[in-house]
Amino acid sequence: MNDMTPTREQREAKLEGMGCKRKRVEDIRFTQGRGNYVDDVKLPGMLHGDFVRSPHPHARVKKIDDTEALKVPGVLAVITAETLKTVNLAWMPTLAGDVQMVLADGKVLFQNQEVAFVVATDRYAADDGINKVVVEYEPLPVVIDPFKAMDADAPVLREDLAGKTTGAHGPRKHHNHVFEWTVGDKDLTDAAFKKADVTIKEMISYHRTHPSPLETCQCVCSFDKIKGELTIWGTFQAPHVIRTVVALIAKIPEHKIHVIAPDIGGGFGNKVGAYPGYICAAVASIVTGKPVKWVEDRIENLTATSFARDYHMTTEIASTREGKVTGLRVHVLADHGAFDACADPSKWPAGFFNIVTGSYDFPTAHLAVDGIYTNKAPGGVAYRCSFRVTEAAYCIERAMDILAQKLNMDPAELRLKNFIKAEQFPYHSALGWEYDSGDYHTAMRKMMETVDYAGLRKEQAAQREAFKRGETREIMGLGLSFFTEIVGAGPSKNCDILGIAMFDSCEIRLHPTGAGIARVGSKSQGQGHETTWAQIIATEIGIPADDIMVEEGNTDTAPYGLGTYGSRSTPVAGAAIAMAARKIKAKAQMIAAYKLEVHEDDLEWDIDGFRVRGLPEKTMSMKDICWAAYNSVPPGMEPGLEAVSYYDPPNMTYPFGAYICVMNIDVDTGVYKVRRFYALDDCGTRINPMIIEGQVHGGLTEAFAIAMGQEIRYDADGNVVTGSFMDFFMPTAVETPHWETDFTVTPSPHHPIGAKGVGESPNVGGVPAFSNAVNDAFSFLGSTHIQMPHDYWRNWKAAKDLGAVA
Q: What is the pLDDT of residue 1?
């Protein structure tokens, strides 16, 4: 071999394919301030819009007087519900099958609800204008407590639903009831509880929080009256879905709607659905004939856009005296706010909450979920989780710790006793899912060995003795969490949004010189798709990742896709990329066989091209095949080298992980210290370990925020009391703990590259680890369950209530 001939290792390294810690190519522009966000879009003659918002959580709108507002220099128009009724846009459909006011139509149902839209020549004039709009309100009784929403004397919130005894998901049993959803075998589960040696029952609440992305929701709408075309730049996690929704609402032909999602500063589920700002900006552009920009501020984002969680879960487990679980029973009261605007697949009104059996082999289970309306902002989005999966994981992981406490059994031992065994996969759960693959015992034992779990328990026992002797005022908690997530929505057999199956797509086109472009139906908000998607293609077809351009977010060029949320990018879009690449590879093999004058079956793949079996010196690289594809293809073959794949997954994927949090809490102050946090994730095939680590760090930081203080809280009168970063906990580098990451690899058997997804996992597993650490610490003082969030004040109060503080 010539000394200049690259080795196999050198050729593989040049590709920077799967498994390589390739640096994020996006960061070149981001770190130089060259990103292109919605607020960077500036068009000639562009106008600005801003909302008049209600100070009341529930009130009739008696009158809107815009006389003084229209006198403000620069104010051009004030749009109200009455304006929108002239074009049949006063209400819009939600992704959950409900309808929602665009602007207050007769009444308001939550504080900071949109009442009027002021259009002006600049943002300052718009702000001056909204302060001059005079709205006369008649306050009405408020429903904030979800447990009182279905009282007999509870005020009617949704008067538009008067007389409707059924909704999008079945019968309604109260005027503030949205749906009841049940799954599982109730009779078999009830029988298991009657026979059980031991049972536990606990109300486990997952409080309301908010995704609060770095960049708020915003858009620019520009209507071309000559062409009858509407172009929308927006912070959209699912651009094609937005295009379809706008076509349905505005009755504009879909081919005349152009949706562009440029760089997005975080999404976390907050940017999946449609907001009144999008509709009002579009209407204003159609009316004025000029582009209109809407950018919300932080308070608007926290108080009026889609919230997350607000699930109140009555959880029961039945088991033997030895700790073998025999049944699970859960009832959820789901607070949906004023409108049911959850971004869940259509057939799943409670998302995938029926993953609540977790990683455990429950022989039977039953789940019932009641959705209710309250005077809070609508939403219920998947904040860094698949649909309602983090609520389910928190529910079962807290419940397992509570059961362990009642059994006087170590929570790790209880989990090991009840895990689904590796040989049981594919595993059919009691609530209807088919888990693809897993090796839970291996992951759990690796975690326990790495952190010296037995040694930590001995240290905890010694510290508790020291506390009894008055030698310390700190209590120590070990928070275990072993989660199984369900991601990759999803298979068309059970997943759709607005009737559109939740497939995803990729188009790859290779150029004559051996470079190429991939257009994908997903949309990155920081996940690093431009980096990792090219790595999949590099491994599949032997073109260096640096020679592949990845493009997303433009509905005119990208194939129709369902977007990025719920950790579906790698399981669905990643699979579409691999399948499109394999179509190209198949055609490339035919071209190579023709050029090398052999049969296709005589060729074998070798990193970056094909070689003839038995004649390793007779090869053709993909770069050379690309050139041949445009000048000397086999007779009867079309020139070019490109392919499109629409991938409809046969099943979800099921990543899992083993986490532990070691925490000390000072009972006199409530101040906690996270001494160690270890997170082991199994996401199947690992495309880019560096990006995975970054995703885990980000997800754990959000989990830390949620568990330890982040909350959208309302007072009894319906006022939001955590509506800014002064009160809403947003951890910085100062507060954030050090993260220790690890992994095992259990590929998905049905995914083309074996990948499962990881972006949501650390939030799903992190929250119960933090909460279990707090609860494990306080269990020493006699507590069974303390609700989140565990901020300093609540920790101190728990210690005081338990008699540890005078």
A: 46
Q: Which helix (H) or strand (E) holds 703?
A: helix 689-708
Q: How far apart are the first and last CA of the chain?
A: 82
Q: What predicted TM-score, i.e. pTM, was given to this entire model? A: 0.97
Residue with tokens 């080298």, as numbered in its chain: 641
422 three-class SS: helix
Nearest alpha-carbon partner for 605 in 616, 597, 594: 616
Task: Say whether 774 sits in a helix, a strand or coil.
Answer: helix
Q: Residue 655, preceding bond cis, omega within 30 degrees? A: no
For the chain, the average pLDDT equals 97
For 110-123, the pLDDT digits (tens) are 999 999 999 999 99
Q: Choose, from 219, 280, 385, 661, the residue flagged as catalytic.
A: 385
Give which of 362, 384, 490, 369 is closest to 429, Cα–Cα: 362
Quote the pLDDT of residue 2.
Answer: 54
Of the residues 208, 384, 388, 611, only one is catalytic, namely 384
Active-site annotation holds for 123: no
Q: Is 237 a catalytic residue?
A: yes
Comparing CA positions, the residue from 803, 767, 758, 763 lying closest to residue 787 is 767
Question: What average pLDDT score do residues 404-427 get?
Answer: 98
Q: 529-541 vs 575-596: helix axis angle to the nearest 10? A: 30
Q: How far apart are CA 575 and CA 590, in angstroms?
A: 23
Side-chain-facing half-sphere of 577: CA atoms under 13 Å:
34
Q: What is the pLDDT of residues 29-60, one digit of tens each?
A: 999 999 999 999 999 999 999 999 999 999 99
CB neighbours (10 Å) of residue 636?
Answer: 5
Catalytic residue among 111, 237, 463, 527: 237
Q: 300, 397, 711, 760: which is the annotated catalytic residue?
A: 760
Clarify whether 221 is annotated catalytic. no
Residue 791 has phi, psi (to 5 degrees) of -80, 175
Which residue in this structure is represented by tokens 């487990």? 317
Q: Quote the tokens at residue 64.
A: 């809107």
Separation between Cα atoms, residue 426 and residue 442, nearest integer Å: 17
Tell me whether residue 385 is one of the annotated catalytic residues. yes
**What's phi and psi for 252, nearest 5 deg?**
-95, 135
